[in-house]
Amino acid sequence: MQPVVSQELTARPEVAAFVARAEERGCAQLSELDDLLRLLEASDDDVDALESHLERHGIEISDDCGRNDVDPTSVTNGELATATTDALQLFLNEIRRYPLLTAEEEVELAKRIEQGDLAAKERMINSNLRLVVSIAKKYQGQELSLLDLIQEGIFGLIRAAEKFDWRKGYKFSTYATFWVRQAIQRGLANKARTIRIPVHIGQRERKIVRAERELSARLGREPSDVEIAEAADLPLSQVQEVREAARTVTSLDRPVGDEGEAALGDLLEGGSPPVDEEVELSLSEELLRRTIEDLPEVERKVIRLRYGINGDDPQPLRETGRRLGLSAERVRQLESRALKRLAMRRELEALHEVA
C-alpha cells in the first residue's frame, strides 16, 4: 500500500512551497528535498510518503532538476535508446554534461567544501569524473570491469575532494590523481580475487606482469625471474614473494588421482564452519533483508532483482525493467535512490567491514 502524506505534513508552509516549486518545474531537486527533510526532522515514514506523493503527481526527483547551465546532450533518440541498456555508456554520456573547472573555481569550491557545503563538494566531484575514467582505463584487463574500476576510482575522488588543501597552490587534478589511483589499486587487491592479498603485493604484481609481457614479446620466450626483476626494477626476493602470494586459486572440484575418480575437496577435512561464524552470517543476512523491507515497494523490488537478494541470480537493468514494466533508465534511477537510502542506515555500517 502506498504511504499517504498526512495533512499535518502538507500543511507545513515549507512543504507546500517545495511541492509548488516542484509542480511548476515538473521535477524536484534531490538536494533541496534532502534539505527540507532535515529541516522538518522528518521520519522515515514521512520521507517515503512525500516521495510517493511527488511520484503520483508525475514529479520526478532528480539530481539535476532544472539545470540550464549545461550543454544539451548530443545523443540522438536512437542512440539514447541503445545507451539505456548500457550502464557504462549512460555514465560516460552523463559526465560530459559537467564542464571542467578553472583554477579559480577549484579554489572557490575547496573553500566552500571546508565550510561543509555539500553542493560545492558535489560539483567538484562531478567536474572531475573524466579524470577517474582516464585513470581507470589504464587498469583494464585486470579482472574488474571498467565500470567497477570507475566506481572504485570515484571513492578515491570523493576522498580527495574532502582532503584537498587549496592553500598549497597545486591543481586539484594533480592531488586527486593519487587518491583515485590508490582507490583503484585497493579495489583490485580486495575485490578482483577470491583470496585477498596485501595492496603492496598487488602493486608489485602489476609491475611484474607488465615487465613479463614486454620481455616475452621482445625475447620470444618466457623470461626468467631474474630478467623480470631487472626489468621491473624490483629485488629478486620481491618477485619471488609476489609469485608465492599470487598463486592461482585451485578449485576444490578439480579431479585428482590417476583416473580422476576423486575431487580435491574429497581429500580435505570436512566439518561445518564454527557456530559463531554461522551466527554472524545469519545475523548479517537478516539485517540486510530487514533493512531492505523498509524501502518503498518499487525500490525494494528493484534491489531484490538487481542483486539477487532472494537467492536468485542478479538481473541486468533491461531484464529488471521488463519484469517490473519499467524502462532500464527508470530502474537505474530507482536503484540509485535505494542505495542512497541504504547508505544512510546506521545499522548497516557494521556490514561495510565484512562486505
Question: How is this structure best described in words?
Answer:
The chain has 355 residues and is mainly alpha-helical. Among the domains are: 56 residues, no CATH class; 93 residues, Four Helix Bundle (Hemerythrin (Met), subunit A) (Up-down Bundle); 45 residues; 53 residues, Arc Repressor Mutant, subunit A. The strands form 2 sheets. Strands 1-2 form a two-stranded parallel ribbon. The chain has a two-stranded antiparallel ribbon with strand order 3-4. Helix 9 crosses helix 10, helix 12 packs across helix 13 and helix 16 crosses helix 18. It starts with 6 loop residues before the first helix and ends with a helix. The N terminus and C terminus are likely disordered.
Give a brief rundown of this model.
By secondary structure, the chain is mostly helical. It contains 19 helices and four strands.
Please tag this protein with its features.
two-stranded antiparallel ribbon, Four Helix Bundle (Hemerythrin (Met), subunit A), 3% strand, disordered C terminus, mainly alpha, two-stranded parallel sheet, 4 strands, 19 helices, disordered N terminus
CATH architecture title of the domain at 99-191: Up-down Bundle
In order across it, which strands form the biggest sheet? 1-2
Work out the radius of gyration. 25 Å
Q: Look at the helices and sheets and give the structural class.
A: mainly alpha
User: Beta-strand level of the residues, as a percent range?
Assistant: under 5%
Layout of SSEs?
Layout: H1 7-10, H2 13-25, E1 27-29, H3 30-40, H4 44-56, E2 60-62, H5 77-83, H6 87-95, H7 103-114, H8 118-126, H9 129-137, H10 146-163, H11 172-191, H12 199-219, H13 225-232, H14 236-245, E3 255-256, E4 262-263, H15 275-293, H16 297-307, H17 317-324, H18 328-343, H19 349-352
Parallel strand pairs: 1-2
Antiparallel strand pairs: 3-4
